[in-house]
Amino acid sequence: MKIALTAALSLTALVFCAAPAGAQQPGTAAYNSVFLPAHGVGDTRSSGSGGRWGAVAASGVVSGAWVNASDQQEAENAALQQCRENGGDDCALVTSYSNPCVAVASINSGESYPWAAAATMSEVRSMVRSRCARSGASCEIIYQYCRR
Hints:
The protein is α+β, with helices and mostly antiparallel strands. 31% of the residues lie in helices and 27% in strands. It has a domain at 53-146. It contains three helices and six strands; from the N terminus they run H-E-E-H-E-E-E-H-E. A three-stranded antiparallel sheet has the order 2-1-3. It has a three-stranded antiparallel sheet with strand order 5-4-6, with helices on one face. A hairpin with a 2-residue loop joins strand 1 (53-59) and strand 2. The protein is flat, with a radius of gyration of 24 Å. The chain starts with a helix and ends with a strand. Residues 1-23 form the signal peptide. Keywords: Signal. This is DUF4189 domain-containing protein. Residues 53-146 form the DUF4189 domain.
């Protein structure tokens, strides 16, 4: 009886110790899924149900934007569609984002579209103005949004 109990305990220990610790193994869904503030990408909270995405598309001075999409592809498709519905002939995606705040500017009525996404609107505006100033051309913020 003692030998059988010892063998059963040894087998149990072997099974539990030999089982892979799948939670943080490379190639698993959970690998690198929790970011620490030291990583520079936020806090340790999960983004919840897939996060919220936004996107901006433009064609010259015509633009389209979409916010609170469940995924990046949905946001991009909706922004392009809205740009076309607003009269854009050759709408192109300017940016998609998951940050809470975004701003997009237009240089020379659609020559290019400097943009920024960050945690606060003041930070976003400052970043866009800085990018506009580097161009040396006429620049105007054409879209801004901050989710709060």
